[in-house]
Amino acid sequence: MKRIGIIGSGAMGNGIAQVCASAGCEVLVYDHDPVALEKARQQLSAILNRLLAKSKLNDEQAAAIRQSVRFVTAMDEFADRELVIEAVIEQLDVKQRIFTEIENIVSLDCVLATNTSSLSIASIASACNRPERVIGIHFFNPAPLMALVEVIPAVQTWPDLAAKVRAWVESLGKLPVLAKDTPGFIVNRVARPYYGESLRILDEGIADAAVIDHAMVSLGGFRMGPFALMDFIGHDVNYRVTESVFAAFFFDPRYKPSLTQKRLFEAGYLGRKTGRGFYRYTDGGLPEERANHSLYHRSDPQLLERIFQRVLAMLINEAADALHYGIASKEDLDLAMTKGVNYPKGLLKWADEIGIDSIQQIMDDLYDVYREDRYRLSPLLRAMSKEKRTFYGHKNERDDGT
Ligand SMILES: NC(=O)c1ccc[n+]([C@@H]2O[C@H](COP(=O)([O-])OP(=O)(O)OC[C@H]3O[C@@H](n4cnc5c(N)ncnc54)[C@H](O)[C@@H]3O)[C@@H](O)[C@H]2O)c1
Predict the structure, then answer these.
(1) Pick the catalytic residue: 86, 150, 197, 318?
(2) In the chain, which residues fall in CATH 1.10.1040.50?
(3) Engineering a disulfide at 157: which of 85, 107, 153, 366 sits with its beta carbon 3.0 to 4.6 angstroms away?
(4) Confidence bin at 118 (pLDDT 50/70/90)
(5) Could you tell me the fold of the domain covering 187-402?
(6) What is the Cα–Cα distance from 213 to 224, expressed in whole angstroms?
(7) Measuring CA to CA, which residue among 7, 12, 11 is closest to residue 32?
(8) Of residues 188, 238, 244, 299, which has the active-site annotation?
């Protein structure tokens, strides 16, 4: 698939266009808003100039990319496309309308993809007469820098299409993972406890944001603590994803949003972009609290360890449950978290290192204290512990004594 059409020239559409053109595809970008289209053209040009200045591209390569991307004001121009990727606003009715329209423009064998982060692929595909050619291709932001791409076939999707799309994603130099069409796919589902459990610890007054961040960074090796990360993502985006995953899972308490975060969202304290979230940001963009190192030194090491173990156990439990329900393979689950959100290790590999029994113990202790369904252990972990299995080896070496 070399002739690509992209609908929506926002942050994602434009980034995906750059990725495709850099890999030798010929790309048309359409947006219904001429101002957005012009902005995207200028942005792409500025990015290419920056890459040239940094010698990450030579003149020839930059010229080739410029020539390969054409911004168009009518979708009719997409008649000869082999693959169309939709990246418009995250609204089901808008996306469905676009799929109905584009289906009548392209040829019968053109693949239609959506970059949605939270809507079901099945619901988008249902707008088409031939839903079997519809699939999710979920790039991460910023698309040119993030290696991971989730490939999500819908229940209607032609069975061989996922393999074809996976190979196409690889041809872009990206790392595809295959995910089931379930809320949050892999990354936005498995990462939820990083935010949710940290917020719960904060809400219970066990520790403040800076201490929890410190625990996850210093003991876990995460690049950013959960609160600094939520401030970075923006509470509008992060809260809405949490709310949508919670609703889409029929209000499973494991994904319950936090009122504390909702209030920040309502107050317009969206994080770094508004200068205030959990932290206050000075001109340089760094949280003021960071300067206060004494805060960390005062933290009780046992408290830090408890926080880290609790959040990590919840993350591992989520990843194990995703495996239990066949959302993705264990390799893809681990790849998704290391490449999609830069976790220091794959969660299932981490589980093997810590020991399945230890994870079981932490989860069961939490369940004993709270008696909430939120802390239920994945049946897969319980079975593995009983049978002394690990994710990547057969036997649990710790219990073997080997
Ligand atoms: N921003 C992210 O971090 C991110 C990451 C992965 C996936 N996504 C998904 O990618 C999609 C796009 O996100 P974004 O951040 O680029 O949004 P954005 O708001 O930056 O851009 C959306 C673009 O779509 C255009 N648009 C809206 N309605 C249209 C229509 N009917 N026809 C043609 N163009 C239309 C808008 O003019 C705008 O330029 C969403 O589905 C989002 O969930 C976003």
Answers:
(1) 150
(2) 187-402
(3) 153
(4) confident
(5) N-(1-d-carboxylethyl)-l-norvaline Dehydrogenase; domain 2 (1.10.1040)
(6) 7
(7) 7
(8) 188
Please give the C-alpha separations between residue 121 and each of 115, 154, 179, 186, 188, in angstroms, as whole numbers.
9, 5, 11, 14, 15
Q: What is the mean pLDDT of the chain?
A: 93
Pocket test for ligand 1, best of 85, 89, 96, 99 (most atoms within 8 A of CB): 89
CB atoms within 10 A of CB 29: 26
Give residue 30's identity as a one-letter amino acid code: Y
- Give start-end residues of each CATH 3.40.50.720 domain in the chain: 3-181
49 is catalytic: no
Residues 6 or more apart whose CB falls under 8 angstroms from that of 71 comprise 9, 28, 29, 30, 31, 37, 38, 40, 41
Reported CATH class of domain 3-181: alpha beta
- Spatial neighbors of 59 by CB under 8 A, at least 6 apart, are 52
Q: Which two tokens stand for residue 292?
A: 């206060």
Residue from 115, 117, 238, 258 carrying the catalytic annotation: 117
Distance 154 CA to ligand 1 centre (A): 20
220 CA → ligand 1 middle, Å: 33
CA 133–ligand 1 middle distance (angstroms):
21
Q: Is 51 helix (H, G, I), strand (E, B) or coil?
A: helix
Q: Is the pTM of this model over 0.90?
A: yes
What is the tens place of the pLDDT at every residue in 245-303?
Answer: 999 999 999 999 999 999 999 999 999 989 999 999 876 566 655 545 445 556 789 99
